[in-house]
Design brief:
Layout: H1 3-23, H2 33-46, H3 52-55, H4 63-81, H5 84-93, H6 99-116, H7 119-136, H8 141-155, H9 164-173, H10 177-202, H11 230-251, H12 257-269, H13 275-279, H14 284-303, H15 314-317, H16 322-335, H17 337-349, H18 353-369, H19 379-390, H20 397-421
């Protein structure tokens, strides 16, 4: 296939794949984003845009990112299986008497956990617990559930292991875990304060109520813990917490993140809990989506992006924070944040060495915060909304946007200003 034909074919497959990712499905089929990404990668192979050897090469698939993501899923999965999140939520919220107190506890807990653990899994674990407690206290659950999703997104800005796109950026940028956290944890912390203020203002009437006098003191039940053999799960909880704390501590030492995460996962699998139950906690669809996107984007970079002359894009390269952040935010809401980061990597790579680290961090910040704009902006949002629906609570597109739109604009402005005025 000649160069022009290869370029056009690559464009067609790439555009079709990204359109499917943007919509989240293909009309008339039940395929999800992971399946769409895999189908796009297969089409690149079938049409000859990339060979199987090239598709499986390290230039195409980022194996360290997949290893780190998988290892952290095992760690967080063990925490969830052991009932850690339920215990932590119960302890943090035991003395709550008002909706504003529940709001503050929800935002603080979701933000803190998501700063070091993957935000999607945090939302999966906490959303039924927050719904349970809001109903027990006879509070309107909607503001608290929306706050959970937005706080998980904002908190995940703070470190490399906060979300999948940060994991990819950490792998490709060469920025250490400590330096990444020093630059972005302050943005996440201030962003969580803004999150509380926005929700408190928008839902001020719902949050003005007081707790019902018949309030129960029951803690949320442990999720996914069967009634038999509780001692095994108590042992798993102690082991998983110790391993998670040690893993995060080792991240700050400069050791290879993927090796640390895999070692933690392997150690946790050496226990009395069936491995199949732990594997069930892994988001295999997300891993498959990553693999498919790696192949699609690599073929697109070889046949299309290489001809763009990115080195001459002075309008963007000369303003790597402001314009990169706005471009990333817009693209993230069009096709989701992970595909946006993969697509913008060549642009960041073309930025001068003196500004490249800041550009990577701005990309991590903006692609993550942009996920709060609408309910479709991130997987974390969809997890919370779906869990709420299963629990009988509907969160409409507009109910979410009342929080998401102003919050996204304010936190993006905060992030851009932070990079413009705070020097390290």
């Amino acid at each position: 296939m000649d160069g022009a034909a290869a370029e056009w074919t690559t464009w067609i497959v790439f555009a079709g794949t990204y359109a499917g990712l943007a919509i989240g499905k293909i009309p008339g089929l039940h395929i999800d984003r992971a399946g769409i990404a895999l189908a796009g990668a297969t089409l690149m192979l079938v049409t000859g845009q990339i060979t199987f050897r090239d598709a499986m090469s390290r230039e195409s698939i980022d194996y360290p990112t997949l290893a780190l993501l998988f290892g952290m899923m095992i760690v967080v999965g063990c925490l969830r299986l052991s009932g850690f999140f339920a215990r932590l939520a119960g302890a943090a919220m035991a003395r709550i008497r008002s909706p504003r107190a529940l709001l503050a506890a929800t935002i603080a807990l979701a933000g803190a956990l998501s700063a070091f653990l993957i935000n999607d899994v945090v939302c999966l674990a906490l959303s039924p617990l927050v719904l349970h407690l809001a109903r027990r206290l006879r509070f309107d659950p909607v503001p608290h559930l929306v706050a959970l999703a937005t706080a998980a997104n904002i908190g995940s800005v703070g470190t490399i292991t906060g979300n999948p796109q940060n994991i990819y950026i950490g792998s490709h940028s060469g920025i250490s875990y400590l330096r990444f956290a020093l630059r972005l944890l302050p943005v996440a912390t201030i962003g969580l304060v803004i999150n509380y203020l926005v929700v408190a203002v928008v839902y001020r009437r719902s949050l003005a109520a007081t707790a019902d006098t018949q309030r129960t003191t029951d803690e949320p039940a442990e999720d996914d813990v069967p009634p038999q053999n509780r001692a095994v799960h108590r042992a798993l909880r102690r082991k998983a917490v110790a391993v998670a704390v040690l893993t995060i501590a080792l991240f700050f030492t400069g050791l290879p993140l993927e090796v640390v995460a895999l070692a933690a996962a392997a150690f946790l699998l050496l226990g009395r809990v069936k491995s199949a139950r732990i594997y069930a906690q892994v988001d295999w669809g997300l891993l498959m989506m990553f693999v498919g996107l790696f192949v699609v984007v690599h073929a697109f970079q070889v046949h299309v992006v290489s001809r763009w002359g990115i080195a001459g894009w002075h309008w963007l390269l000369d303003s790597p924070v402001d314009r990169m952040s706005l471009l990333s935010a817009g693209l993230s809401n069009l096709v989701s944040n992970v595909p946006a980061v993969l697509l913008l990597e060549p642009v960041v790579a073309a930025i001068g060495p003196s500004e490249r680290e800041t550009a990577w961090l701005a990309l991590a910040m903006s692609s993550t915060l942009a996920g709060n704009l609408t309910v479709l902006g991130s997987v974390a949002n969809l997890i919370v909304v779906e869990n709420a629906r299963r629990g009988g609570v509907e969160i409409s597109f507009w109910q979410y946007c009342k929080i998401g739109v102003p919050l996204t604009l304010l936190t993006l402005a905060l992030g851009i200003a932070w990079f413009d005025f705070v020097r390290y």
